[in-house]
Design a protein that fits this description.
Number of helices: 4
Number of strands: 4
Largest sheet: 2 strands, antiparallel
Strand order of the largest sheet: 1-4
Order of helices and strands: HHEHEEEH
Helix content: 40-55%
Distance between the termini: 35 Å
Shape: elongated
């Protein structure tokens, strides 16, 4: 592509127009299932639910990707998932957040 000029936003795919939507949806569904499994381990007594763009996409399409009436594909803007966790106290949240951090660190190498 060295001879073809493209704006930096397109080179870095900031518009996500060069996204394989089917592959993205598969990865999202796997990540959502993994998140649910992690939350069941860490917060078996608590509540959690998607929010923000994740909730909007799930409400619209049941996934992050869906077809629009015009035949275009609607892809959620973010490449993340947002969730809220309901806790009964600050102390309970501190315990849960430490467990989440530890589990994500050991399972996925997050730091």
């Amino acid at each position: 592509f060295g001879h073809t000029w493209m704006p930096s936003w397109r080179v870095h795919n900031l518009s996500q127009e060069m996204l394989d939507v089917d592959a993205f949806d598969v990865v999202f569904q796997r990540a959502l299932a993994e998140l649910a499994a992690v939350m069941d381990i860490v917060v078996p007594w608590g509540e959690w639910w998607p929010c923000g763009g994740t909730l909007l996409a799930l409400t619209r399409h049941g996934s992050l990707v869906g077809e629009l009436a015009s035949g275009k594909v609607d892809v959620a803007v973010g490449k993340d998932m947002e969730v809220l966790v309901g806790m009964s106290s600050q102390e309970e949240w501190e315990i849960v957040s430490e467990r989440l951090a530890s589990l994500f660190s050991s399972r996925y190498g997050w730091s």
